[in-house]
Amino acid sequence: MKNILNKVTTLRLRFLMLSVSVLLLQIGCTDLEEEVFSEVTESSFVPAESDIIAVMASAYTPMRYVMGWQGYFDVQEEPADMFVTPTRPNGWDDGGTYKRMHFHEWTETQWQPRNTWITCFNGINSANRVILQIESGELPVSEAQAASIVAEMRALRALYYSMLVDTHGNVPIIASYSDELPVQSSRAEVYNFIVSELNEVIPSLTETVDQSTYGRMTKWAAYHVLARVYLNAEVYSGTAQWENVITACDEIMGSGAYELSSSYSDIFATENQGNSEMVFAIPYDQIFAGQWNAHMKMMNPEHRLVFGMQAQPWGGSSCNPQFIDSYEPTDNRLADTWLMGDQLSYTDGSVVFTLVKEMPSIYGCDFTQGFKCGKYEIEPGATGGLSVDFPFLRYTDVYMMKAEALLRTDRSDEAAALVTQVRMRSFDNPADATVTGAELEGDTTVQYGTLAEDGTIADAGDQSVVPFGRFLDELGWEFAAEARRRTDLIRFGVYQTKNWYNHTPKGDYTTLFPIGLEELNTNTNLSQNPGY
């Protein structure tokens, strides 16, 4: 079990053992004057460290929706140019939900963005509740502990807001635990709140990186969130913050707490909790925290025989062939990320089925059409949940954020040196891994345009050059299937302008999702985002 989950489970077991002890006392006791310890009152409860950590864990738990059913992964990948969920022989129309995400034709009742709104605010409210419990003295802790816990909860709250400012933009800022209807803030105001909060709490956050802080907001995780928000500052607030990106990244790089993993695939292995890249991980466990079921959507039913799984996957999403074609032939990340070609039996090595790259249309594909995501390890005996911890913030991203900021401020050779370091582990020949600043400044290699059923371009659409598009390619190859492609495409102007697969652009307003109808109906202080 991972650290936080261990402590939560320990707490539950403690209460269970207490209940059993009370029952035994009641059965075996004949002295009616004997004091019975059958109740734990507020005045007699003195929380241990594990109890406080368990309370804090309630604010982290909502993060596990990221790789859950129609969670943050779908919000970030389904509207982008990499993942497609077409109709399959077993269904997958699902009322048109995936087609609406692909076509950017969602409505205010679309579940995936509503799920993000609801879950992030659950996390924000839980963080606020913990802060209230500390500040009110309900959880008696030392002054130093109180300052540390409050700082950690504020940093976690800022992380949730960093997701909301990206997906919905104009959301309420709720900085205290209250039952009052919150007032809506502008996207720029939310951005400023995140930046202010993180800069204020960072000095009070722990610098310790070990098992005790795994899956928690440390100083370096907070700097990482801050760098990401600065990276997208021009989108969120209208003003670029490239130098601030570099400064935040340098803080993390100067800490000495992390290093690039020597193996790309090790980052996504089942036992990845000790990986040197994990700045902030979301812990999963297929038995005790099994919300990770994205793999069930990514793989075919017969992959059960390929990986020796207990569960039978559902055969939904595959990779847009246009993105597959953009990879360099010697880039090992292609095979490390996508299941391609013959899929061999776990038991005898025979061919179970063969995957082909081509996907005729979002309106109908066979199970074998489209390469599947195989980036996250599937252990033999895997169920509908995985135990792979999701690397929500990983150290390679620090290199790439700094590289992009350098690239955009006319320091392309410095940027290329960082990108080359990242590429080295994924190419057998170091010469193939080396890139130049001039290359990174070039256009994207993805062939944009809608596809006809024979795989040719049906509608080329906007074919204008994407500034620094070649760097966007690097982000795609390195971070494929890591719940971030939508954000990157928006920052580079592709999301709003380009055609891909069966998608044509609908306009700038789609860079924000609509606020849910139910949320609008229950809070009269909210106004719908423009364009909806």
Helices, by number, come to 21
Portion of residues in beta strands equals 5-15%
Structural class computed from helices and strand pairing: mainly alpha
Helix content class: 40-55%
Overall mean pLDDT stands at 91
Question: Quick one: how many beta strands?
Answer: 11
- What strand line-up does the widest sheet have? 10-9-11
The end-to-end distance, rounded to whole angstroms, is: 44 Å
Largest sheet entry: 3 strands, mixed
The radius of gyration over CA amounts to 24 Å
Shape: globular
Low-confidence stretches: 1-42
List keywords for this structure.
single chain; 532 residues; mainly alpha; 3-stranded mixed sheet; two-stranded antiparallel ribbon; globular; disordered N terminus
Topology:
Elements: H1 3-28, H2 49-60, H3 72-77, E1 83-84, H4 97-103, H5 111-135, H6 143-167, H7 187-201, H8 219-231, H9 233-237, H10 242-255, E2 278-282, H11 294-298, H12 303-307, E3 318-319, H13 321-324, H14 333-337, E4 338-339, E5 341-344, E6 351-355, E7 372-373, E8 390-394, H15 395-407, H16 412-423, H17 430-433, H18 437-440, E9 449-451, E10 457-459, H19 469-478, H20 485-491, E11 500-501, H21 517-522
Parallel strand pairs: 9-11
Antiparallel strand pairs: 1-3, 2-8, 4-7, 5-6, 9-10
Overview of this protein structure:
- The protein has 532 residues and is mostly helical.
- It contains 21 helices and eleven strands.
- The strands form five sheets. Strands 10-9-11 form a three-stranded mixed beta sheet, with no helix packed on it. The protein has a two-stranded antiparallel sheet with strand order 1-3. A two-stranded antiparallel ribbon has the order 2-8.
- The chain is globular and about 65 Å long.
- The chain starts with a helix and ends in a 10-residue tail after the last helix.
